[in-house]
Amino acid sequence: MAKINTQVSHPVVRTMDRDLDHVENGLSRVSRLIISLRAWATRHLNHEAQRPDSFLERFCGAELKEVSSRESNAQSNVGSQEPPDRGRRNKKATMVMDPSSNMYYRWLTLIALPVFYNWCLLVCRACFDELQSEHVMLWLLLDYSADFLYGLDVLVRARTGFLEQGLMVKDAQRLWKHYTKTVHFKLDILSLLPTDLAYFKLGVNYPELRFNRLLKFSRLFEFFDRTETRTNYPNLFRIGNLVLYILIIIHWNACIYFAISKFIGFGTDSWVYPNVSNPEYGRLSRKYIYSLYWSTLTLTTIGETPPPVKDEEYVFVVIDFLVGVLIFATIVGNVGSMISNMNASRAEFQAKIDSIKQYMQFRKVTKDLETRVIRWFDYLWANKKTVDEKEVLKSLPDKLKAEIAINVHLDTLKKVRIFQDCEAGLLVELVLKLRPAVFSPGDYICKKGDIGREMYIIKEGKLAVVADDGITQFVVLSDGSYFGEISILNIKGSKSGNRRTANIRSIGYSDLFCLSKDDLMEALTEYPEAKKALEEKGRQILMKDNLIDEDVAKAGADPKDIEEKVEHLESSLDTLQTRFARLLAEYNATQMKVKQRLSHLERQVKVSGSDPLSDGGIPGDAAKTEIKEQ
Fold first, then answer.
1. Cα–Cα separations (whole angstroms), residue 615 to 229, 610, 628
2. CA distance 521 to 489
3. Which tens digits make up the pLDDT trace of 333-346?
4. Which of the two residues, 25 and 150, has the higher pLDDT score?
């Protein structure tokens, strides 16, 4: 029986093994399929998200390309595991805060809050007893939260990088030494001294023990400076900042007035705060508002406050009046300059309009044309197109100018076919030479038969190709279109030459970019190969449209070009001859002076009647020295 059972059990075991193998094979196939699909999707998404722009890549240097390749490699290896040493290396790296980064600015925003809290509420709590005694737990929580942020700020300052020879210093020891040598380190340490330990002896109702926390004011000023450089409305921020300073000064003065009144005695004379036993003047809100009202009247030099009685009251009022005069002068000067800065562009623009209006009235220009000119100016101001780009960017170095121009105009320039494969340097030159132009409704950009001196790229607006009557429209050009690129190349054999072949008129207000022929040729002077490539590309476009005479194109050099070159050589030769004649005249004059000097020296030697080597050789040596100098 045992034998029979053993024989029967073998097929069952083999069947189960085969089923398990089938299941395992199926799971492995499914897992491999999922992994391959995931890898394909990752590659596909990365490829779609980071499809390279061949036109833009020519502006990137080797470093930028290396960075982009590293980023793409990192993204393609998302599913791969990091080696263990890389994690260890990252842990050893020192964390350094870049002062120009957004993280540093966010930290400034955070640390400015406790500084502002201390400057506003410490003096108020020290002078108004009810404010301190009724909310003790709240003040303790806020105070020690501010102390915690102060301590963190010391660590942040110790790890804030600084520039040395243009590079960010990231060594922890050097950063700490640099921080300890600054005044900020001393102020930070003083602001963190635990002076509030005296609470154990005096009680918690003495917030003036924490006045050393006010020494952190530099962080608040730094936050204001960074915000002013980052905001898009600097003049508005300056006005708000000035008002904030004035309110803080009035607030402190109000608290000091109430403290002096408490020291002298409430209600003892007409100048101090009235007696607090009176319910009307015993409320906390009335105490603060009355003191703030008195401080505002005094510092703004309005007056209408009770006159002082005692000597210490007179001294305080005199100091307040002096501070008030300075505040008033500061307000008038700062607000006046801010308002003039805010209206500077408007005033300059209005001056241009006024001068043009006076000129049109003096020349008796028609009302219709005068209205069109004024409407054109209104359009410029309403759409904020009155800024002179060259004037604004003139203080920047050429590199930054080029980068700004590339960011602003590159999308427009890359739409032009003949510039698709140009060198990066030439594209930078052309981008810097693009000039904005705005046309009013009905203005002709060009007319048939005009000499083509510019090419145009439409940034915004609609233009119509019209017949000679100016009404019939053949086609409408919109954003991104361009025209006139062939005429400025002056390609030999072109049937139209360098003349316009169509009438183009603005339908509404149109914003265009203009590239003149002179600017293009000036840029192509240093790029002869690019010039040949552009001419060849323009020739192919003309051949495609059957607008080129191949016989003339294959002929030799144009006699007009040879004549221009000869004239250029003649003018250069005349310039060189003039310079040579000036140099020759200077040489003859110098030679004559040298001869006269030599003759004078010879006469001096003869008059001395002695040998040049006698008497220590002084005369002879002097003569030789002067001759050598000449």
1. 76, 9, 21
2. 8
3. 877 777 777 777 77
4. 150
CA neighbor of 239 nearest in space, from 335, 330, 116: 335
Which residues are CB-neighbours of 490 under 8 A, at least 6 positions away? 497, 498, 517
| Number of residues written out for the chain | 630
- DSSP H or E run through 514: strand 510-516
7-16, 119-128, 414-423: segment of lowest average pLDDT: 7-16
pTM score > 0.70 for this model? no
Q: Which residues contact 387 (CB under 8 A, 6 or more apart)?
A: 345
pLDDT in tens, 584-596: 999 999 999 999 9
Residue owning tokens 């005096």: 202
Helix (H, G, I), strand (E, B) or coil at 500: coil
Max distance between CA atoms of the chain, in angstroms, equals 157
Cβ neighbors of 470 (< 8 A, separation 6 or more) are 503, 505
Q: Where are the alpha helices (DSSP H) in 159-192?
A: 172-180, 183-191
Residue showing tokens 């040298």: 594
What's the 3-state SS for 88-108? HHHHHCCCCECCCCHHHHHHH
Q: What are phi and psi of 321, to 5 degrees?
A: -65, -40
Structure tokens, 384: 């904020």
